[in-house]
Amino acid sequence: MHLDHAVTTYPHRHTHSAAPVRADGSRRALRIGLGGPVGSGKTATVAALCRALRAECSMAVVTNDIYTREDAEFLLREAVLPPERIAAVETGACPHTAIRDDISANLEAVEELEDAFREHAPLDVVLVESGGDNLTATFSRGLVDAQIFVIDVAGGDDIPRKGGPGVTTADLLVVNKTDLAPYVGSDLDRMARDAAAQRNGLPVVFQSLRSEPGVDPVAHWVRELITAWATP
Question: pTM of this prediction?
Answer without folding.
Answer: 0.90
